[in-house]
């Protein structure tokens, strides 16, 4: 072989390798494009199948879901009503407790005033606490001042009396808890 022939064969070998490389690249590109198309086709088929399943689920189960939804809403409404009733009852209980505490405070004020007026009670001592009488009092009025001519209650025992029609000195006004001294 001559040098020219050897150079010709070498250049031909290069061209063969270039053609082989181009064919291989073309085959790779074709394989990638085919795989992408198959993937897209499969995804589209899966989308259609999923849509059909959703439509079947809605068609078959809508009445049951609607009934369950209605029942859930009714249960929530009943729970809300029960909660509101419980809050109202709690508020009423708090108001009753407040009213009781106020009534007890008014009673204690009346007892303190009675003890202040009573010469037999040391209301200034450090251990003093107002005490309600534990025994029945006298059958005649024991309040200071003249007896009210219209007074007919024989069980009246004095300063703690709250008869709204009774206004002689030393008696309590039921609306304010203060002693009346305006007669």
From TrEMBL:
Give me the stretches of Basic and acidic residues compositional bias.
70-90, 105-125
Region named Disordered? 54-183
Listed A to Z, the keywords are:
Membrane, Transmembrane, Transmembrane helix
What are the transmembrane regions? 15-35
The name on file for this protein is Uncharacterized protein
* Organism (species): Nocardioides deserti
């Amino acid at each position: 072989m001559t040098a020219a022939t050897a150079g010709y064969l070498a250049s031909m070998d290069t061209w063969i390798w270039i053609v082989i490389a181009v064919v291989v690249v073309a085959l790779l590109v074709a394989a990638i494009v085919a795989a992408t198309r198959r993937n897209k086709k499969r995804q589209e088929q899966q989308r259609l199948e999923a849509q059909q399943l959703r439509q079947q689920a809605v068609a078959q189960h809508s009445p049951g879901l609607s009934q369950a939804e209605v029942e859930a809403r009714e249960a929530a409404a009943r729970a809300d009503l029960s909660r509101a009733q419980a809050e109202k009852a709690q508020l009423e209980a708090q108001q009753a407790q407040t009213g009781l505490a106020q009534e007890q405070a008014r009673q204690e004020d009346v007892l303190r005033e009675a003890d202040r007026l009573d010469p037999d009670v040391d209301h200034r001592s450090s251990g003093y606490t107002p005490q309600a009488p534990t025994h029945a009092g006298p059958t005649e009025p024991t309040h200071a001042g003249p007896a009210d001519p219209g007074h007919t209650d024989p069980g009246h025992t004095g300063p703690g009396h709250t008869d709204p029609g009774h206004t002689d000195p030393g008696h309590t006004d039921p609306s304010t808890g203060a002693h009346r001294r305006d007669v």
